[in-house]
Amino acid sequence: MELLAVFLPLIAFAIAGLFGKKIGDKGCQFITCAAVIIAALSSISLFFNVAYGGTAYTTVLADWINSGDFHIKWALRIDTLSVVMMCVINIVSACVHVYSIGYMSHDEAKGRFMAYLSLFTFAMLMLVTSDNLLQLFFGWEGVGLASYLLIGFWNHKESANAAAQKAFIVNRVGDFGLALGMMAIFVIFGTIQFDAIFSQVPEMAETYFTFLGGEYHALTIIGLLLFIGAIGKSAQLGLHTWLPDAMEGPTPVSALIHAATMVTAGVFLVARMSPLYEFAPDALMVVTVVGATTAFVAATIGLTQFDIKRVIAYSTMSQLGYMFFALGVSAYGAAMFHLMTHAFFKALLFLGAGSVIHAMSDEQDMRKMGGIWKKIPITYGLMWVGSLALAGIPPFAGYFSKDIVLEAAWADGTWFGHYAYYMGIAAAFMTAFYSWRLLLMTFHGKPRASEKVMSHVHESPTVMLGPLVVLAAGALFAGMVFYQGFVGSAGHHGDDHGTAHVEAEHHGEEEHGDTHEPVVIHDEGAEVIHAAEDGEEEHHAEDFVLSKETFWNQSIQVLAANDTVEAAHNVPKWVKYLPLVMGLLGISLAYVFYMFRPNAPSVTVTSFKELHTLFYNKWFFDEIYHHVFTKTAFLLGLFFWKFGDKKIIDGYGPDGSASVSNKVANLMSRFQSGYVYQYAFMMMIAVIGLISWFVFKGSSAGGAL
Amino acid sequence: MTDFNLIPLLPEIFLSLVGMGLLIVGVSQGNVSTRVICWSSAAGFVITGLILLGIGWETQTVLNGMFVMDKFAGFMKLLILTGLVAAVGLSVRYIIQEGMERFEYPILIIFAGIGMMIMVSANNLLTLYMGLELQSLSLYVLAAFHRNSMRSSEAGIKYFVLGALSSGMLLFGMSLIYGFTGSVDFTTIGATVNNLSAIPFGLTFGLVFVLAGLAFKISAVPFHMWTPDVYQGAPTSVTALFAIVPKIAAFGLLMRLLFEPFMGMSEQWVQIIYFIAVASMVVGAFAAIAQGNIKRLLAYSSIGNMGYALMGLVAGTAEGAGAVVLYLTIYMIMTAGVFAVVLSMRRQGMAVYKIKDLSGLSQTNPGLAYPLAILMFSMSGIPPAAGFFGKLVVFNAAVASGYYILAVIGVLSSVVAAFYYLRVVKVMFFDEPADAFDGGLPFARRAILFISVLFVLGFVIKPNIFVSSSFDAASVLFQG
């Protein structure tokens, strides 16, 4: 089953990639879509077996590297965490594959596009099912490659090429951290296989690295290094600049890679390494602060952008920030929960935006839209669903996951937990605001597009709307249905703090929601808590106790004292309701600004000119990086190229030695005159030379003559 | 005359009889019998080899210490005989195609072979000289064998004149050695040298002259000048012979000379060999770059390869000697394969020799191009081909004795050398195809090419078969 789920996309990629010409565009589309849909169904079945059936296992495929103490196998680790990811990936990917048939219908290279999508899907699946860090890294780089190929898919566009390179290069910085983290883990633990690492974590909790005379807590260093990898891949503040640019890629790519799956790899990584992070509280603190700040900053930028895809991109970044601060406060289950719901509604929003762009003849600027809601009512309705979910309005999925994230942050009780909570609240307000700004600018008001464009506005074909409906179902129900599993408490009575755990659940699939199961209790007082596992359940079986402990079944581990998800169920009422209130406020304000008082935005912009400039220019990250890194690097590069490389290395190295070799060769062949007497002379000279050498040496050494 | 035991001499005696018998056949039957004589001589070499395997290889000297038979001599003779079979096999079709189908050809090879076998068994300066001259005189004639070709005659003359000069040096060196040690017998010389409190200059001079004479035979720099001209001018089948066999004999002789009688003077000869080795490697690597003729290129290649082999001598240890033997074995087999291809470079019945002529061979004749590419990779020392291991053991031996600089020079020059080997590959695979070569690879050539490639690729699987026997053979030199 897991083999089907993981390798079908690879096979589809191989067929579409190698024989794309032979089987034609139709063939490619059929094969890739069929493969990914089957993979998605397999993952769903796996999900029920593993998450609800409590049967985690590892499938070993082959030996990979055996070198000294270093043993690595190709293996698929199937536990709740990985099946949750597999479901998200395969379902969203299936939707995107199908959607692409319609969206890319005018493109020349449909086969190539479908092949890349399948390649991406496979790489992402390798990443999440990995049994060790190296295989994870393989998947990690694989998705990076696929992302590069897809961002730059329209390679006739200068900006697409630049964006692809930017994404690739910025990610290298993060990958460097990840690689260092892996190496550090190998140094400390002597292995990079997950189980072997996790079982040693408690004993290693007090290990220190000595570096440049200082002593550093090893697990914290490892945690931070891995987090640098996560920052890069998940576009957190600092290494986020590639994500908005990545919107140069076709919209299905943005939905699949840059909203639902690849960018969540960082979240997955931290969740996967939860047993280690639990012993590195300082690293978690950094994760929280970075995540919270990202959530806020990205939301502020989102307020001011006009490109419809960029608004959603910043929104993605902001939501990823939520996930990270949830991780940072040990609410791994909540983070995964939000990851899952977010995958649905964000993919929905992106594909919806794609549908709009498609309708508007490839226009992406919201200032040139407006007044089209009657012409594309289905897209309009679906965008509403997505926006409601994003803004966290009940009963949409985002409400459940965002709330539990914020509550967990508050429940953490530390200064950074509170910081995250307030940042999150502010971001929630802005999220609601810019979501409705997007909706209102795009669909309402007077049409601002040209007559010609307006006359072409049309609803997208079924092949595009179908996937949207599937995703909308996820955005609607995934929150309710899986709440109990992903984050449900095993029944909290009063002071049981012992263990709770998070569990999240996810998986929305398109089938209509299954019911969720009732919660049950769990034992208290255990030291390390794990996520709970869930009883098995099929759709309506009701008698177990589903809670985060049973659901996660140890694939996520939380120390009892850190169990913020459990604590989140007991936070004050105002903490619970504040996000919703802020969301509603944001929506209302958007209506005021963009419906009832159309001049309000410009007034606001003028009165907060500096702030607007800051936000509009994305806090000047790109400019600062350009001046600090790019320019310096460019100058350095120029120097090393012109002087270091061309003059010194080439001059004395390859070019120099090559030309010298040639000269020497010619000189030597000139000795080869062909005259016997010269050859004989040469021999005599040589003998005389050798004898002279001995005479000279012998006499200077006082030898006997 | 108590030790009048001819058993150790049986192979040489048998081969001499074969040679003389075939001579009579040739004289009576004329040139039409050339082909028969060729194959008979090849069979003669094989039978000689079997006889060689039949007699004991334990160390014994006969003829009043003039002649020694031991494992080293046995192994080297086996190599020589193998090389000779290959050389004859490569020649048959070629001499017919080139219209120099005369019965003396294989018979000269037989006599050269006898000379070479005597060389590696020599235990006396006079035996040494006799073997060497028997070999050389046969080879001079062979070089000029293509009488209608100016170049061939020129090559023969050059080789002869310079060879005579080197023989003169060798004799002069021997007389000095005799003068200072009072003997021409290796055992006595060795004992005398070991008992000397200081090495007299005269003896050193003698050694220098002897080494100069021998360096000429192995075409080591700076006594190499004849090599490119003779390789180019001589008929290609003779060039193949030159490249494959005499080097082994001369090396055998050189090793016995240095490691047995003159071991006590190793301080002196190491300096000479060191210099010659470095010069050979460097010249072999650089001068080949400028060559457009594949035979000249192979001449420089053999010069360079002799440099690497000499490096093993410099080490002065049993490991070094073993490394040299292994290196020569591998070199011989690779070279035989390469010449099998070079001999097949013919267009419209004319032999061609330019590297350019190989252009696009991978398309016009992949059956030649792929084996040649493999051999070139091996020659340049790229693992896992056999050539890599040959270089590896030699460098290892040098490093183990502390000759780091020598090893580094060796590695660097093999980098340069890789350029021209790989250029051949590049020309064959990436250049615009030239006209195809004439088809039809004779069986012998095909077999030699196949065995050579098989050896080059298969060596890595069971390297010990060759490594241990080579090292075993060489270790005898260090027992006395």
Task: Describe the overall structure.
Chain A is mainly α. Chain A has helices at residues 2-52, 80-103, 110-129, 133-151, 158-189, 194-204, 218-233, 242-245, 251-260, 265-272, 274-277, 281-304, 308-328, 332-359, 377-391, 397-412, 415-443, 451-456, 462-487, 548-552, 564-568, 573-596, 600-607, 609-616, 621-652, 654-671, 676-700; strands at 57-67, 70-78, 208-211, 214-217, 528-530, 557-559. In chain A, β3 (208-211) and β4 form a beta hairpin. In chain A, α1 (2-52) packs across α2 (80-103), α2 (80-103) packs antiparallel against α9 (251-260) and α14 runs antiparallel to α16. Chain A is globular, with a radius of gyration of 30 Å. In chain A, 55% of the residues are buried. Residues 492-543 of chain A have low confidence and may be disordered. Chain B is mainly α and 480 residues long. Helix content of chain B is 74%, strand content 2%. Chain B contains 20 helices and four strands. Chain B has helices at 10-29, 34-54, 71-97, 104-121, 125-143, 150-181, 186-195, 201-217, 226-233, 236-244, 246-259, 266-289, 294-315, 318-342, 361-364, 366-379, 386-400, 404-430, 443-458, 464-475; strands at residues 60-62, 67-69, 346-347, 350-351. Chain B has a two-stranded antiparallel sheet with strand order 1-2. The radius of gyration of chain B is 21 Å and the shape is globular. Chain A binds chain B through residues 661-662, 664-666, 668-669, 671-672, 674, 676, 678-680, 682-683, 685-687, 690-691, 693-695, 698, 703-705, and chain B through 157-158, 161-162, 165-166, 169, 198-201, 204-205, 208-209, 212, 216, 222-223, 225-226, 228-229, 268, 271-272, 275, 283, 286-291, 416, 419.
